[in-house]
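Hey forum,

I'm writing up a methods section and want to include a predicted complex as supplementary material. The small molecule is guanosine-5'-triphosphate. I've pasted the protein sequence and the SMILES. Can someone with a working setup run it? I'll credit the forum in the acknowledgements.
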Amino acid sequence: MRPDLNETLARARADLRMGVPVVLTSGESAVLVGAAETIAAGRLAGMTALGDVDLAITGRRAETLKARAYDGDIARVAVPNGAALSWVQGVADPSEDLSKPMKGPLMTRRGGDAGLHRLAVILCKGARLLPAALVVQVKPDFAAVEALVSVDANAAAPFLEAAPVLRHVVSARVPLRAAEDARLHIYRPEDGSEEHYAIEIGRPDRAKPVLARLHSACFTGDLLGSLKCDCGPQLNAALMQMGAEGAGVLLYLQQEGRGIGLANKMRAYALQDQGFDTVEANHRLGFEDDERDFRLGAQILDRLGFGAVRLMTNNPAKLAMMADCGIAVAERVPLKVGETPFNARYLAVKAEKSGHLF
Ligand SMILES: Nc1nc2c(ncn2[C@@H]2O[C@H](COP(=O)(O)OP(=O)(O)OP(=O)(O)O)[C@@H](O)[C@H]2O)c(=O)[nH]1
Ligand SMILES: [Zn+2]
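Reply by user p_vandermeer:
Happy to help. Structure tokens for the complex are below, copy them as they are.
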């Protein structure tokens, strides 16, 4: 009955989302970790009582805060004695960077190993929270005494690096406006994350490159008709073209906000209202420009029996990733629809900074 590592990691992410700390271990050392976004004042006080608390943030966030990141992609900010929760949130969350700049330089730690801090931030990202985690050393038996989830970092590393394995759950017919002969396939990742969907139009010939689109979920664009991006029109145009050709496959991947989740995407939108572009906003939050894992898409195509695609995209990263994952890209089919006065700047930044081909 004992949970395996995938299950333990999923529990750790769920606990962090709930504001419950988890323990990470590496050999003899153990740390207690809480997500900066969700931890309550009482638990912060409890962590402070245990010793010197670090706030682990990404190198990206450290750059914005002008803090030295001695560990490259990670900075270990020393939490001052008696610091309130609002101080922690001010470091983690960029929403008030401009109206309430942090006072004084942030002291960051150097020396020692930042491996557990890095894992703490990865778990926060996986939980779709702000990438910032409180970290304090504890005794190895702390998790058992406090009934907390404990993750062995070294054993977990390969699970975190690999693309999650997907399990096919069910397929059924769903007649669409774009194509009456359509089927929806559901895939469930074994790491406990959200399900991904494949919409198969007609019965594409597996021996030929299939007209395909890897579409990342966009609640605002796909469902609400947001004019701030081109996702809704792209989704629609891709399905319509597949319908017109009588065959195709559209993968609907749960990678909202280029993999940072809807709450963080809305944080990015709030920063864009302050004048930052889509890439700068991600960086100020502590994320990379694009946190998506396109290996998932390649895995689904492979499962469906497709080895080659005519890929509907303007994004060169998607083309490269398909080829890396063993799916041949026979052709790029441009998908340039839905430009509005509200998204013209966004599309221009994608072309300038992310190399999009428009
Ligand atoms: N973080 C962030 N995500 C955004 C923003 N605007 C849109 N998105 C997300 O970006 C993703 C867009 O994905 P795709 O439609 O696959 O777009 P793409 O990578 O530009 O590639 P193609 O459309 O194939 O050319 C969706 O997950 C949106 O939710 C933004 O300003 N910030
Ligand atoms: Zn969108």
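Some notes you might quote in the supplement: The chain has a mean pLDDT of 95. The pocket of guanosine-5'-triphosphate (ligand 1) is lined by residues 215-218, 229, 231, 234, 255-258, 260, 265, 268, 278, 282, 313-315, 318, 350, 356 (CB under 6 Å).
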